[in-house]
Design a protein that fits this description.
73 residues; mainly alpha
């Protein structure tokens, strides 16, 4: 009987740890991406110039906003 109780405690502890770890990792990644965006306006401007486009400030702002909206899901 005591062995069954210990197994139950271990299983519950693993489930709680997995759920807590998921939410902690998710929050960490959200903060990391907010503080260190994967792309910024200078990178976007450079890519557009390499593709032969003349980027306007309005177009750059629209593309950055669209990317940030896609990240927020």
């Amino acid at each position: 009987m005591a062995t069954g109780v210990w197994i139950l405690i271990v299983v519950i502890a693993l489930l709680i740890g997995a759920v807590a770890g998921f939410f902690i990792a998710r929050k960490y990644m959200e903060n990391y991406l907010k503080n260190n965006p994967p792309i910024n306006e200078d990178m976007l401007r450079t890519m557009m110039l390499q593709m032969g486009q003349k980027p306007s400030a309005k177009k750059l702002h629209q593309m950055m906003q669209a990317m940030q909206d896609a990240i927020r899901w």
